[in-house]
Amino acid sequence: MIDLYTWITPNGLKVAIALEEFGLHYRPHTVDITKGDQFQQDYLAINPGGKIPVIIDHETGITLAESGAILLYLAEKTGRFLPRQGAARHHTIEWLMWQMGGFGPTLGNAHYFLTYNSGEAPFAEDLFRRDTRRLYETLNSRLADRDYLVDDYSIADMAVWPWVSRFKRHQIDLNAFPNVKRWYLRLAARPQVKCGYDVPHFTSEIPQP
């Protein structure tokens, strides 16, 4: 059994979706970051960094934070959704790191400046609007001749998809990125993605372009 401590953010959703895809038994625990739950002492005892998500794998005794590390751990644990060797393995990790190091942080800033604080910092809004569009163009180019980010559906797709699901907050029209739109809708139709999207609780239907 795995305990998942999470909230309804892209980083939280990616791990919930992964747990559904891996078919692992887990219990979700709500950490409402809008109420500061992540700074409660009982949660800080699990993750001193005060971030979500965190898993506790009672089978192995491992407690793990950082969503990218969790995805790698689950893939290694199950032997699924991450090639064991060769170029495909390295490219899967490459695109996972692309999400962790660029796509996620930039889009998180886009949420902050374009959606939650619009008009407060025009320079930052312009910066993150342009960089968000550049990253969507990169993703669209990558998906031009393939169904998934690498050869097959992988943890890289699971990591990127929840961030794309916030496209409206990025002020992005997915119709302008047809390869991203095709990929996004393909993954949105997966039963495991639909289930993971509602963890730790239902908020809305998966956004449609």
TrEMBL record:
The record's Gene3D superfamilies line, in alphabetical order, gives: 1.20.1050.10, Glutaredoxin (3.40.30.10)
Keywords, A to Z, come to: Oxidoreductase
**Taxonomic superkingdom:** Bacteria
* Coiled coil (UniProt feature): none
* Record flagged with keyword ATP-binding: no
Query: Residue ranges of the GST C-terminal domain?
Result: 85-209
For the keyword Nucleotide-binding, the answer is no
GO MF annotations, alphabetized: oxidoreductase activity
Enzyme Commission number(s) from the entry: 1.8.4.-
- Pfam families (UniProt xref): GST_C, GST_N
GST N-terminal domain ranges (all copies):
1-82
PANTHER family according to UniProt:
DISULFIDE-BOND OXIDOREDUCTASE YFCG, GLUTATHIONE S-TRANSFERASE-RELATED
- Tell me the protein family, please: Belongs to the GST superfamily.
Please report the name of this protein according to its UniProt entry: GST-like protein
